[in-house]
Structure formats: C-alpha cells, structure tokens
Give the backbone structure.
Amino acid sequence: MHSTMQLSRTTRITLRVLMILGLSVIYVPLLLVVINSFNPGRAFEWPPPGISTRWWSAAWSESGPREALLTSVKAGLGATACALVLGTLAAFAVQRYRFFGRQTVSLLLILPIALPGIVTGIALNAAFQIVLPPLGIGFGLFTVIVGHTTFCIVIVFNNVGARLRRLAPSAEEASADLGAHTFQTFWYITLPAVRSALFAGGLLAFALSFDEIVVTTFTAGPGVTTLPIWIYENLARPNQAPVVDVVAVVMILFSVLPVYLAQRLSSDTAVTVH
C-alpha cells in the first residue's frame, strides 16, 4: 500500500509561488539578455523600441566572436573525447574490479568537480610551467583541453559508473559461456547497455567545457580566446554591449541543448540488452 502526503491548499499555493520566484530569479535575467540581443538600439531600453537582427549581423561579421566560438568548440570536443575515453575506462575499472585503494581512486576521480575552479586553475598552471617547457610545449589549446578534461572526466565517470551499477553481469557471463570473446561481449552486450550513458556524459561534459572560464584563464596561452573569455574581455566596453548580448545568447544555446539532450537520454532508466 502506497501512501501519499496530503498538503493543504495554502501549502500548495505557497510552494508554487516559491517555485515560480526561484525560477524567475534564474530565467528572467536570461530572457532579458535574449530580448536585448534583438534591441535595435545600442543601449538597453525597456520595453525595446522594436526588433532588429542588426547586432546578430554585427556579431557574425566580427572575426573575434567567430574565432572564439571555434576555439570553444575545439576545446569542448577535445576535452569531451578525452573524458569519454578516460572516464569510461575508470568507471569500468572501479565498478567491475576489486583492488586495493579502489575507493580512494574513486574519490580522486570525483574530487576535481568539487574543487574551486581557481584552485584547479592555479595548480594546473604551476604544473604546466614545470612539465611542459622541457617537452617544448607551451600554453595553448592543448593545455586548455587538458585542463577541461580534469573535470569533464567526473561527468563521464559518474554517468557510466551509475549505468554499470544497474547492469547485471549475468548477460555478459552468458555471452562468455556461449563462446564469445571479450571484444564480442563488449560490442554486443555491454556497449548497447551503456551507450545512452556515454552520450549523456559526453553531452554534459561538452556543455561544462564550453562555458568554463576560470580554469581556461589559467591554462590558455596568448592568442587562445574562448567564447567565455571573449565575453569577459568585452563586457566593459560600451560599444560592444549589444554584441556581447548576442554572443551570450549563442552560449546559452550551446549550453542548454546538450543538457536537454542529456536529460532526455538519462530519463530512460530501463537498461535493455539485445
């Protein structure tokens, strides 16, 4: 027998009002940025005197935002690819094998997401200054990808690990009993079961990398400008304010879409093995 908690009408109304207020604090400022990106004037006006795509055209015609967008996409894809490989291998190692220090390894993998970004950035900057010069490698896109990978691994590790915990090993054992070797078992049994977790983890990792600014500031070299850094550098320039709004809207889209897709993938909690 299942019992449901009954709330009074006053309590329900209060909770709804608080929820609306909380969502308003988050999304009303974002909505204002979107509206202002279509404002024909250079200064913010409310209500807007009209609707214009003038600043969208101006943002596209500028090389700075386009190059910064391309750099952010490259960094996000690079960090996501590295995180998918390393995070998946780590998840399989921790979930499928028992070894000394297993819990410590799991903690060390998750810890970067809990550390303040500025601490991670300073630590990486110091390490890169010691390790990279003897190898002839300087600060640049490579160091940004490495820096982003440190916290993107956590997302993939958690997603794949959670799926592996729900996946019974009986199907893999049956596959092995029927004569399938390790690769066949992985390709036909394990991979289909964890595929949605891999996609969700990759999408979330890309979104996390795309809007990262603190770690990027400490790991990017001269001439490497991601979209968040471009926004930060141009935010105080009055003439660039409308263009910054447009670029901010683009960042919102690039951040929201992966999270939405990842949420849709993760909502399917049933693990089916074909």
